[in-house]
Every structure is written in C-alpha cells, then in structure tokens.
Write a structure and sequence with these properties.
Strands 1, 2, 3, 4, 5 and 6 form a six-stranded mixed β-sheet that branches. Helix 1 runs antiparallel to helix 4. This protein is an alpha/beta fold. It has two domains: 169 residues, Alpha-Beta Complex (Lambda Exonuclease, Chain A); 39 residues, no CATH class. Helix content is 44%, strand content 20%.
Length: 211
C-alpha cells in the first residue's frame, strides 16, 4: 500500500473502539467540533511537541516521529518514542509513549492506539517492541502497556474493521452510549434524537406490515 490516501490514521482505531459512528463522522465525513476535553487534549499535545514532557535518566526521547505501516495500512505520528538501553550496549530499544489528557480507561481504545504505533515502529525498524506506556495528565501517572499477542491481534482486527468502514464509505446509525456525554460531536451526531426517530419509523413500518 504505497498511496498515502489509502492509509488510515492511527487515531481512527481509538475513535472506532470508542464509537464507530464517531470514527466515521471524523474520518469519513470530516466533521469536527471542539469542547473542553478536546481543547485540553490539543493543548497537552502542543506542550509535548514543544518539549514539555517527562524526562527519564539514561533514556533518549524523540518527539513527533512519523509512523507508517504498509502491512496494516496505517499512518500517524508518535507523541514520544523513548530509546531504552538494552543492557548489552547494542541497539537501544524503542518504547512509544502516548500522552492523554484524562485518566486511564477501562476499555482498550488507548492501548490499541499505542500498540498500533509499536507495530508501525517494528515494521520500520525491523525490531520487536515488548511494551510502551500511556501517560495520563489528569493523574500524572504512567501506565505500562505490554504488547502481548491478545493486544496485537485486537489492534490488527480493529485496523481491518476501520479499513472495511472506509471501503464501504458508510456512517453507522446512532447508538446512545455513556461516551456520548463527553463527545464533542454530540450536537452533530444527535444520538438520542436520531435513535428515537429511527425507532418511530421502525414501529410505523411494523404496524403497516401487520395491517
């Protein structure tokens, strides 16, 4: 896959796992609005890009590394890639670090996004990356993420699902979920109103079929 237009943003995987409709609105329809949460996230990444990141003794950090995987059809950028000594004095081991403005989530959306970055780095550097980290600004805590087989498989399956959505070019119907409360697109998506409308239409046709 050589054409950048055919590549899927790594961030789309995180959006897909939060809500497939959100993913389609952003990455298929190009819709976006900002709220307090997205503004805080944007400012955090601006600080990371400017060099305002945690430092760790003996570890070299590089910011904003472009990422690409032809095998998975992904493209993106790593917030920070740390290069850790491997103990033998040979090639340092890369560890991707993704900065998030909120807190650790119970789902795998952030972990899949980070794992996708690792898979891109492995493809580019010809190495194996065993783990990375998510740094959450709300708690000022780093969460280590092992890239085990289960997470790798889920990342590849998610990439395949997002590619299928892109190929179909269709935005899924609204399904109200708890994440809607903090979503900046809620006024564009109108999940509750549209879901109710669809329910009424379905009920109407059901009645007509019975009649």
């Amino acid at each position: 896959m050589d054409d950048d237009d055919d590549l899927i943003p790594i961030s789309a995987l995180q959006h897909w796992l939060v809500c497939p409709r959100q993913c389609a609105l952003i990455h298929l329809e190009g819709q976006w609005t900002e709220n307090r949460l997205t503004a805080e996230g944007r400012l955090l990444h601006a600080r990371v890009d400017a060099g305002d990141v945690e430092t760790r003794p003996g570890i070299r950090s590089t910011r904003g590394i472009p990422l690409r995987s032809n095998r998975l059809g992904l493209v993106g950028k790593a917030d920070v890639v740390e290069f850790h000594p491997d103990g033998s004095g040979a090639n340092p081991v890369p560890h991707p670090v993704e900065y998030k403005h909120g807190r650790s989530k119970p789902d795998d959306s952030d972990r899949v996004q980070l794992c996708a970055q690792a898979l891109c780095l492995e493809e580019a550097l010809g190495c194996t990356i065993s783990e990375g980290a998510l740094f959450y600004a709300a708690t000022r805590r780093r969460v280590v993420v092992p890239f085990d087989r289960s997470l790798r498989d889920k990342t590849e399956q998610t990439a395949a699902s997002v590619r299928a959505m892109f190929a179909e070019g269709r935005t899924s119907p609204p399904v109200p979920i708890p994440a809607c409360r903090g979503c900046s697109l809620v006024q564009l998506c109108l999940p509750t109103a549209l879901a109710a409308t669809e329910g009424c239409v379905a009920a109407y046709f059901s009645r007509k079929m019975i009649e």
